[in-house]
Amino acid sequence: MDEKKLDDLEGHEDDTRNGGHHTHNEHKEEHHRRKKGQKPTIDDLKKEIHMDEHLIPLEELLARLGTDAASGLSSEEAMRRLQRDGRNAITPPPQTPEIIKFAKNMLGGFSMLLWMGAILCFVAYGVQEASSQGGPLDNLFLGIVLVLVVFITGCFTYSQESKSARIMKSFLKLVPQRTYVMRNGKSKETRVERLVVGDIVDVKFGDRLPADIRIIKCSGFKVDNSSITGESEPQSRSPDSCHENPLESKNLAFYSTNAVEGTCIGVVIKTGDRTVMGRIAQLTGSIQEEKTTLAIEIDHFIMLISIFAVFIGIVFFVVAFVLGYSWLNAFIFLIGIIVANVPEGLLPTVTVCLTLTAQRMKAKNCLVRKLEAVETLGSTSVICSDKTGTLTENRMTVAHLWYEGTVHESNRDEDLSDPLRSRRPSSKSWDALARVMGLCNRAVFKENQEHIRIMDRLCNGDASESALLKCFELEVSSVSAFRVKYPKIFEVPFNSTNKYQLSIHQQPDEEGYLLVIKGAPERILDLSTSYLNKNGEEVPVNTEFIKHFNETYAQLGSLGERVLGFAHHVLDPERFPKGCEFDPSVIQRYLKELCFVGLIALIDPPRAAVPQAVAKCRSAGIKVIMVTGDHPLTAKAIGRKVGIISPGVRTVDEIPGADPFTPLSDPSDRPKGIVIHGAELAEMSDQKVDFILANYPEIIFARTSPTQKLRIVEGCQRAGLVVAVTGDGVNDAPALRKANIGIAMGITGSEVSKQAASMILLDDNFASIVTAVEEGRLVFDNLKKTIAYALTANIPELIPFLFYIIMNIPLPLGAIAIIIICVGTDIVPAISLAYEKAECDIMARPPRDQHKDRLASHTLIYQSYAQIGMLESAAGFLTYFVVMGENGFLPSKLVGIREQWDNDKLYVTDSYGQDWGYAERKQLEYMCYTAWFISIVVAQWADLMICRTRRNSFFEAGMSNPYFFFALLSETALAIFLAYFPGLSHIILFSGLRFEWLFVPFSFSLIIFVYDHFRKLFIRRYPGCWVERETLY
Q: Measured between alpha carbons, how far is 785 from 778 in angstroms, rounded to an integer?
């Protein structure tokens, strides 16, 4: 078939794939769906994978697929299938256009509240302009400022999230581009997307699997399934089926996994979206992301503010109408009151606070992709953590060695300045074990790493052999120099049939070749007739030795360690003279004369900081659940080491005859820990999953599939928990997307997992999550303080307008002054609260109750509006009356003169009989604007001080926040500049004040500070009292 014709088909896509992917019944369903042009539903994708391609005989499978193992497909048949099925590529999830992302930042959350305020301002201005009386430009100016605030803040948020997205692109790892396929009886290189079901492909070490394949034949073939199943160790493949579960069967290899060793020939059974990875990608794309807890809180806050604003507005609309105002003026008042309740400066303040926290978290190895996700971690009540690379170091390490009848711990301490400190004392048994460890090993160090610590060096070779290589280098000597002394003559690689690897070496000082072998301990013992005793002498294997061997093997296995057996044998120099050719079949006959030299146990060790981090989570009321694809024994061993299963806690599987679902009269009799195998989880109903999650505080899920991880997350959410999920593989993507916050691994994570997550762990360390949880809790506390501070100024901005309507007095505060307070003087102080330290150990308290502990609670509103806000209003009014009184207008004279005051054709007589023209009155009014503005600024000094803490005294906070003092200075400097700088009075309608007038608001600032100090003192001395219940936010 012409290559060009195949190229022309690359753009052709269809929603279906080959019917041979399924069993007979599933094929019918797929054919019916294809005819209707339907894609699998999310319920279809959530089901466990059911297939029989790995179970039926190979000849039957080849016949079903219409292919031949020797010659493959013809080019014509390949093209026909390509036309029918489309390319072998995963359909990318729909991408959100950048304009939509930008619009969401412009219209979501607080932005919508400000848009409503801006629209109301423009409506008010339009109504005034349309009326015969016309009107001032205040509403127009206020509307423009609100639009600018939304636009600038939206651009800032969009740029921050886009920056994280750009960082994401650097993690991109390309899928395989080309592969070798058998067509028309000839092997040819082709592009991966041209593969079809039934193709015979050739895969070798270093390749990525180009599709889901069934193994026809292989040689020492191993694949890294960690991205699909979560298994940390490379998995050997063979042509034989060994498990009904396709993910566990050794005769299948999956699309996008890596071939780490050997070669294989296989037949393609699934392509594109029908591959295991394709199903996971589709499932991930079908799941709706959960709304962040902060988004929920912001919606709740907006609802409260909106209800309050509309209620007050309607009340005073009716009052104004009753007082004789025209419906037009009453409507203008209604809009003015609603707009006065809009916290204009809160949107940029919250955005900057979240951004600052995100930057702090990035410095602590947590990259936040979505700003709102910053707080979600602080609300987290359960963390479903992967094991490999998150709880563990993601590198196999020698843990224990057994020789001379004793278990020895490996030495991982290293001092580059004195390498001899790491060397193990020499003995005949240890020397023999070390020699086999160094020689029967294909791993090598990469070049130019002499200056790097041995344990941190990169290797070429699989994880287990790399661990043995590092152990030899650390505890014996240079591997490369040692191997030079023992040149390799012959080698038999490991395979799943033999279960061992051997090599033959020339000895430096002795006659006869040295055969060294390692493999499954029971297999190596079967091949051994002798062993090395404590004196390093070869003695025959006896019953006592076998008993000791079995006990040690079981002991190391119970620790979750992978155990290897080691043996050697010096070949007869007469039978194998120097320079002879070695035949594997001949060598097999000599494998019954081995000398067993010892066991070495390997493990992916827990990260050093993880046990403390898990303990910190437990003290913070956060449940840590391990969800892994590894074996239950390994998972439980690591779980015990890191504290997910506490010391002394027995799991259900350790109690003979225990039933995890048996009702108990006394729940305390139930074991605290449980380990659930994926096969057991697959048989459980949702009710049983919910029972496990509710009744067992210490849980490990092992051998889980992607859909099972998703079920676990959904179960936690049904219980009302806020779920954080960690993951690095494609198999983790559905759970990452469904979780309240998904946390992907930055180093080992796949591109799919990173795109599904809200946060990326740059160092792959579980301990960094706990640090981020602290930051999340702190940002929630500080956002409360910020909102309390920002809302307080709403009341002294609203009250003047209400009195202007009801008492008919000259307006005490202009619209421009309100804007300056909200987006000028209050911004920096509000942001400074984001730098406050925690008042107590925030990781010693349980996660917040989402239904009770709200961002804007009734106590916060009451404290800000009814207490501090009213005191600030009193300060403003007293200063207003002082300024008016000293200029001739006593309070009694001010009531009822608004219409005369605003009429530019009339003179107004003050309390002392002086006539005031319109220009003179307006100059006095601007002086009142300034007096009220300065009063709010001075009162907000005290408000900033008291908002630094919610329970502690201001003096306990001390000098911990240097930005607090900068905020006070900047706020004061801006206020002085606006009030007294020449030339600004005609623009912002301010006028300078006499110095003695400033003492009035100072007194109120002191009252606010003293009042709040004693309020907090009362709360600390009498916990739970009515003062705490009604005023502690």
A: 11
DSSP letters for 561-629: -EEEEEEEEEPPTTTS-TTPPP-HHHHHHTTTSEEEEEEEEEE-PBPTTHHHHHHHHHHTT-EEEEE-S
> pLDDT tens digits, residue range 660-671?
887 766 666 778
Measured between its terminal Cα atoms, the distance across the chain in Å is 74
Helix, coil or strand: residue 285: helix
Task: Say how many C-beta atoms besides its own lie within 10 A of residue 49's C-beta.
Answer: 12
The residue among 109, 165, 214 whose CA lies nearest residue 751 is 165
Listed residue (471, 1024, 367) closest to 757, CA to CA: 367
**What is the spatial distance between Cα 163 and Cα 327, in angstroms, rounded to a whole number?**
50
Strands 500-505, 759-761: pairing kind: unpaired
DSSP string covering 899-943, please? HHHT-TT--EE-TTS-EE-HHHHHHHHHHHHHHHHHHHHHHHHHH
Give the model confidence (pLDDT) of 259-312 as tens digits.
988 899 999 999 988 888 888 877 877 777 777 888 888 888 878 887 888 888
Confidence tier at 42 by pLDDT (50, 70, 90): low
CB 145 within 8 A of CB 152: no
- Cα atoms in the 13 Å half-sphere on the side-chain side of 340: 24
Stretch 943-968: mean pLDDT = 89
Q: How many residues does the chain have?
A: 1033
The contacts of residue 254 (CB under 8 Å, 6+ apart) are: 209, 212, 223, 225, 228, 275, 276, 277
Residue 582: φ, ψ to 5°: -100, 135
CA–CA distance, 738 with 841 (Å, rounded to integer): 30
Report DSSP state, residue 837.
Answer: P
Q: How many CB atoms lie within 10 A of CB 863?
A: 24
Residue 291 vs residues 160, 707, 722, 739, 740: alpha-carbon distances, Å: 19, 21, 11, 10, 7
Can you tell me the distance from the alpha carbon of 24 to that of 51, in angstroms, rounded to the nearest whole number?
Answer: 10
String of DSSP letters for 637-661 = HHHHHHTSS-TTPPBGGGSTT--TT
Dist. CA 416–CA 860, nearest whole Å: 58
Which residues are designated catalytic?
386
- Coil, strand or helix: which one is 394? coil
Query: What Rg value do the Cα atoms of the chain yield, rounded?
Result: 37
Pairing of strands 366-368, 382-385: unpaired
Predicted confidence band of residue 472 (pLDDT cuts 50, 70, 90)? very high
